[in-house]
Design goal:
Layout (H helix, E strand, L loop, with lengths): L5 H14 L6 H8 L3 H13 L3 E4 L5 E4 L8 H7 L18 H26 L3 H31 L2
Length: 160
Amino acid sequence: MKQSSQLSDVLHVLLHLAEADAPLTSEALASAMSTNPVVLRRLMVGLREAGFVVSEKGHGGGWVMAAPLESVTLRDVHVALGAPPLVTLGFREDRPECLVAQVVNESLQSAVQEAEASLLGRLEAITLSELSQGFNHRLRAHRRAGAASAHRLEDHHGQS
């Protein structure tokens, strides 16, 4: 079974929007995700309905954040996507007549429900603001490392 990356994809898009100084088109966002703009627009429907983003048509239009990053949790985004299953396990038989399969399925289903409840609780505790802060921290570190690397390169060339 193919894993869904919808939540990850949408969080990626939301961080791009959070960092943007101007509206971003579906084409630009889709390019950043290596997908088709139609796929991106389908993902954005639930986010727009939840009030997290808005879009404007026409010249200078595009997608922008409509909600403060501090007020949107990862669970909120998950719900806006239609709350797809976060944890999945395949069952040998969906509707077993076998008593052994019934016990196995019941135990696995219970474990999946517990895991999903735990994961939803964790997603409730993380905001888009925290993701944005994490991105900006990494960006600053990346830039410092790049500057240090450039200085080492200059020093090396200066000694030749």
